[in-house]
Structures are given as structure tokens and as C-alpha cells.
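BUG: 3D viewer hangs when loading the predicted structure for this chain

Environment: internal workstation, default settings.
Expected: structure renders.
Actual: progress bar stalls at 90%.

Input used:
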Amino acid sequence: MTDKGEGMYPSPAEQAANTEVFITSELYARVPRKVDYRREKAALQDLAARMAGCPDELLPRLVDLALETTGAVTGGLSLYDEASTPGAFRWRFLRGLLEPFDGGLAPRDYSPCGITLDQRAPVLAQNPEKVYDWLVEAGLSLPEVLLVPLYVGSDSPLGTLWVVADSNGYFDGEHARVLTEFASFVDIPLRMVRSEQHLRQTLDEQEMLTREMNHRIQNLFAMTHSLVRMSARHAGSASELADTLLGRLGALQRAHGRVRSGFASSQAAPSGSDLEDLIRDIMEPHEAKSGPARCALSGTPLVCGPRSATALALIFHELATNAAKYGALSTEVGRVAIDWREEGERLFLRWTENGGPRIEGSPERSGFGATLVLNSVTRQLGGSLRHDWRPSGLVLQMELPIAALAQ
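C-alpha cells produced before the viewer hung:
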């Protein structure tokens, strides 16, 4: 089966106006068949049993019972495929002569099924291949087709249930009534299945969020313990220890604030933080209250995951703290430029200081802050780090794997 391009076939209204093909009014002009209510009741009981015990068998059994109760020679379901472009119906659970076409597609706006959904009522079509050339291309000739709409709830179209007779003038109003009863009956279990699927998905997401939150809390406790222990080792006084710890914990807090919004959304994991926003948050306390900006940022948009955002927050906090103590941010005219670019699977990030005290060479020894930056880059993010102690100021270059930043 093939599909014409959108706009290349008659509108649904023009198709439905073809009284040679669409003969729904004849359904109620024909003498109705003798009703076998016992058989109809047994069919509904069968569907109820499937609903309770084997819900996955409900739709195929619906097709089987539709053929049994109407005496049609073939039939099936056309289920609306929302993912297709343009919209289309997928043939499912076909029985009889059309069974080889199971899984095929039919255009939403160029098919009897589309007309049925638009009219939200039974439709009778006679030799629809006279209008729909994709039926001709498939070698199909359908003397008479009776279709009824399938809905999940009142506004969510699922598709259509249809049966085919091997001669014209076969179907009548009682056939349409029985199929409508069947279609209405399965609406309830289909809604239950969808509700159950939605509930299961919600519970799975909540469980994943709980695991993720527990994991992050454990990481924060471990990192806080390490910060306290290492900061105490290098602090000269209680006041210095308090200031150092407050600064580092503040960086962690800002990083956590950047990613925690993902927990309030419907996503199964935190959405992450934009790299530029994260750096700007860390550098903001070092900006002058007035005058030109002291920190210039430039780079392509990049989203960092919770783990990498925490590491980056500590890295830039330490760099900013050192710059404020000894480097460019320790003078009124000093400036820091931070830029980054992506090349393949790597991110190249550069920190450049200018306007601070003249640098005579690399430091003779490194403190805990430098060790924290090195470990964060190499161990946590799997990257590399290079310092260039220029007379005009420190230039630090990081190379980081993009994959690690997504974590």
C-alpha cells in the first residue's frame, strides 16, 4: 500500500460526498437480519473474559467475534499511528483474505477509516477501490465494507473496526449496531490498560528519581566529609576554615540548585545544567557592583549532567577563589575570560587571567585547592589539565570528554 503526498488527494469531505462509494444511508433502508441475541450476549461475555484474564488478546478476539457475528469474509482493525507523517492507519489483526496485508499502512486522510473517524459513526462503503487507488495498487477489490469507530474515552481516537462482505447489499443496520456495541464495550478495558500503563510508568519514574536522589545525597555527604577533612588540614585558623568551607559548600549548593529542577519535572532523571549558566553563577560573587564586567564567557551551549555540574562548580569556585586572592580578581582592573569549544567528542575549555599582579613563575608548591581542581578534572571527569603561568596572568586549559559532561 502506498501513500500519496499530503494535498495530492481529495479532501475527506469530497471523498465522503461520493455517493457511489459511501452508501451509509442504505444500512437503515435494508431489511434487517434476524437478531441472534444469545450469540451476541455470548460474544460480549467472551470479550469480558478476555478483559479480565488476557487483556492482550482483547483486540484480536474483537476481530474474530466481529466476523463470527456478522458472517463477514474478512476484517480487521485500522489503528491510528500518531508517529507516522502524515498520519496513517496501521492494519492489525487482519483475518481472512486480507491477512497477508497485516501491518500495512493506509493514509489517515485518504481512506474509509479516516471518513469513519471524522463522522464518529458507522460508515458503509461499496467498492472503495473506485476512490482509493492504493487499494487498486494492492490488487484489492472490496464489494462492501462496514466500519465503526474505536475510541479510548470520548475524544481519543484509536482507529476503526471493519468487516468486509463478499457481495454488495449484505450489511444492514443490525450489523452496524452489533459492531458499535462491540466497539463501545472494549472502550472500557482499553482505558483501563492505558491507565495501568500510565501508572506503571509514573511509578517507575518515581523509583528512578528516588534512586538518583539517594545516590546524589550519598555523593554530597562523601564530598562534604572530604572537603571538611582536607580544608581543616590546610587552614591556618578557625576563621579561615569557616570561610573556605562556606565558599566550597556554596559552590556545591549552586550546582545542586542548577540540576534539582529536573527532579520537579516529569522526566525520569534531572535535566542537567547549562554550562554557561553554571559558570556565571559561580563567578557572580566576584563581579563588580558597577562598571564593566570582570568575567567574560563565550562558548557553544552545552548541558552538563548532575555529576559533572558538581565537579565543574568546585573547579571554577577554586579558580575564582585563587584569582581573587592572588590573581586577576585581586586587583580592580583584573579580568578573567572563560571560553570553550567542542571538537568531536572533546570539549576544550580555557581560563585566561589578565590585569593581575605580574607572575614570575609557577608556584613552588600547590595547596588543596589546586589538588581539588586537578582531581576533579582528571579523576571525576576523565580529562586533562595544563597550566601556563604567563607574566600577564594564569592561562589554564582543560580538555574534557563530552560523554563525561553528560553524566
